[in-house]
Records
---
Amino acid sequence: MKPKIVVFTGAGISAESGIKTFRDSGGLWENYQIEQVATPEGWARNPKLVLDFYNQRRIQANNAEPNKGHLALVTLEEKYDVHIITQNVDNLHERAGSSKITHLHGELTKSRSSLEPSLIYDVRGNFLNMGDLCELGSQLRPHIVWFGEAVPEMSRAIDIMQNVDVFIVIGTSMQVYPAASLMDYVSNNTAIYVIDPDAPRVRTNNIEYITEKASLGVPKMVAQLLKKV
């Protein structure tokens, strides 16, 4: 049986592929207030604005390419059972070739019924428009977990965190809950790697900090792990 690795990725790894985050502009996301485009209240007030906003995010993501950080994670699957849990809503991990991916905050490439959340559909192309309906006749909305909404995939993520040999954190501060609580499920015997330019330049107990961007730090860490098996 292959050793189990769980990789938890955040905005930092996607940013290197040119995908912006809402933190880039002091709380604004592409010049929009978060409350306008990433909350149920914003959707209720102006669904067309929300659809247009995510159409632009979808175009941006579809034009981006996986970087060396994404690609390096794929090679880990040669010797490890690799599970990726991501806060990112793009599909760069999928396009890089990783096989086991859980999206905590939803996916830009999918839409769902605004009436029945279990009805989920692929978005063909870049655009989701007013008048695009689910099979029950309700407007389709972005398949995104907005602020104030529950995180349905959290229970799955917790299940994945059981019996982990190596836990890797890439491009996230681990400050956003409930996702940040995943660290609570790591045992004392689990090796932990944190890859982030702002990580402290120290090594403590079973945590190794790599103070580099994902495109540089991930390939180095992967090479190190492949030598251990």
---
Amino acid sequence: GAISQVLVTTRPERVGALVLTSCDYRDNFPPKPFSYIKLGGLPGGVWALAQSLRIKPLRRTPIAFGWLSKSPIDPRAENSYLGPVMKSAGVRRDTRSFIRGVDRQVTNEAADLLGNFDRPALIAWSGDDRLFPADDARSLAQDLPKCRLEFIDDAYTFSMEDNPEDLAALIRDFLKVAEVAS
């Protein structure tokens, strides 16, 4: 979400429409329970964090996927999220660079410029999100001039895992309208 917000405020010509699910916004970057992620900026930090998640029961804790999805994530999907950083030194290097660059000033500056993004936007926020408050969704929707805000029931942050059918339907319907508008 933060990367998308930066993209649409720095290179809006590259984006025809924007869909954001529950995500970082302004000072909630990263959300407090995930502030430990900054350890990934230390030498070997990303590797150590990734290796700790090889212990499968740890994946359901609040500091891993426990507050991101209501139910356990399908193992194949979970491995697709974690596998690259566990197995690839290049992915770990890029992740470490990203973590070192995490700066709330960047997300705040992007949020200040969202009003300039004049293309259709959908905020599909998880109704039961424990990390990203509904007020952030409302503020994001106000920041984006051509925005539609929808809440997805029965979902934590990863609505694509908890309620994929409702999320897909919202995106499908939005894209039909966005296509007509462009």
---
Amino acid sequence: MRHFIAAVVCCVAGNCIAVILAHAAELPEYREHHDLSYYLDGDGQRRPVATTTDWQIRHRHILDHIQRVMGRLPGEMSRVPLDVKVLDESRNGDIIRRKISFQSDARDRVTAWLLLPAGAGEAKRPAVLCLHQTIDAGKDEPVGLRGSQNMHYAIELARRGYVTLSPDYPSLGEHTYDFAEHPEYVSGTMKAVWDNIRAVDLLTSLAEVAPERIGVIGHSLGGHNAMFTAAFEPRLRVIVSSCGFTSFRKDDLPSWTGPRYMPRIATQFASDADKVPFDFHEIVASFAPRPFLAVAATRDNDFDVSGVRDVIDSAEPVYRLFDKPQHLQSLYPDSPHDFPSEARQQAYEFLDCYLNPAP
């Protein structure tokens, strides 16, 4: 398998951009995604992951294999000016609720809710990117305007002192999006990842936000959307995923193959977990040493809880390698596919521990 990895930086009129060059290099194939104890060297030989430097080699391979399925992460040339526009503003108690839109790339704008807690202008606050589940209401659900109360984590976190940003996923909410008209994205997943990266750009630009204290939370679609984004976006310092994943071997793999997700799982990898070149074990390990909490309902009919336990068990040695085993946490509420109150409260406490919201 060959891939393209070389890049140079060109500066034009003071603006620096990364340019990808067509330079081929070997990308070793990993058949045991649950085994994170080794990396493959240039000759395809196994080498033990004994240090964090060793792990960075495996980490780079993981990100390259993810992009074989999702498509390449857009480069700096796609990072156009955000051109933020305020569409509406109101108050909900002490919370300012502001509907905004921003330019994600040259061809598309994203609509989002920005919630600012009382006193947000007095000192910089931590922020949380709040990603919604598969629901036509899109961003309206996390902010409490529609949908299940158990999914209102954006408004609940704002009341806790966080600035929150809730964008629409492509094709849901107000984000009308025809995937067929955008061949620049191989998958809806990568389009969503890029939208979320631009959302982080937006958060870091706000005077109310402490840019070094940004986390992400989501349920179901939002849960794995949070994880996929965090794999590529290190500015997301804390990650919480509720009912968002299981191992591919214990999942309904064809359900991942629609245009909203990753069509290449079907077209190039035959919807076969043995052929897909990554799995969630590697994604979770790629977060290390950043704090990650997996909330996995024991009666979830969408994502098998035993597969979540498998993933956490595989990733634990990598967190130990960084001497941060406490940063990898899992929670198993006795619940169907949901984000019940007690689990949400524990998730918020997890965010509090690392992002330190104002009282």
